Amino acid sequence: MKKLKRYHYERYALLCELSYPNDFDPLAFGFSEAGNVLIEDQKGHVAARVLWGPKKEVVVVIRGSKDLRDWLINMQCWLRRVNERHRTYRVHWGYSKMLDEPCKDTPLLSIYERLRLTLLPLINEGRKVSITGHSSGGAIGVLMAQRLHRQHSKCVKRVVTFGQPAVGDYRFKRQYPLASKTFRVCCDVDLVTFLPPFPGIYHQVGRTHWLHDERIFEDVSDFRRLLISLSFWLTRPVRYHFMDKYIRRKNYFDKH
């Protein structure tokens, strides 16, 4: 079973953080200056970046929620029915709508179509695509990866999301083709990772990597995460009494 390496985690996490400001230096991350294509939504905001360099990997970074409009889209969490090759499933209406919005520079093309046309010559060169995103960017990235795999099978190398809400129902989870290549990173009690707040209706996909109490828990269900978090907070005053907490802070004396 595939694992998420520390190198990939740190690299994608930094790329997601840098997806919010408009200024970005691709050379600092090993990408070429020419290998930096911006995809802007109809409002002129950067929706995604397509990055590549001398290596065979292409990285697509999807921007997360940045303004009021983005958060209103997050709230449009009724399910949209999708019929695909005799398969039926339902996905988050707002995130699906984001992929289908027109681009600023090419209004006849949707954001997804613009991304696909940018990726197509790179895929034909034999490059593999990695997709990453934070918050709603991760959710949109999952939907994008699913569409891309459907049209160009085996082109997606991995999907890494941070603080990602769920995107589809149980049928979407069952039919999602990239479960073994999708890594969903959650941090402590990040409430967004439990959204939309409809247990049993929305289901997460891929493998969960939960960063909690200075440890990494793999493939933990959302219900178990919630129970562990609650028990941790209830017992936190007692935990600080243990000697290991004092030993971990021994470096403080060298710094002060």
Automatic annotation (TrEMBL):
Name the Gene Ontology biological process terms.
lipid metabolic process
Q: Which domain of life is it from?
A: Bacteria
CDD domains, per this entry? Lipase_3
Annotated Fungal lipase-type domain residues: 59-197
Database matches in SUPFAM superfamilies: alpha/beta-Hydrolases
**UniProt cross-references to Pfam families, sorted A to Z:** Lipase_3
Name of the featured protein: Lipase
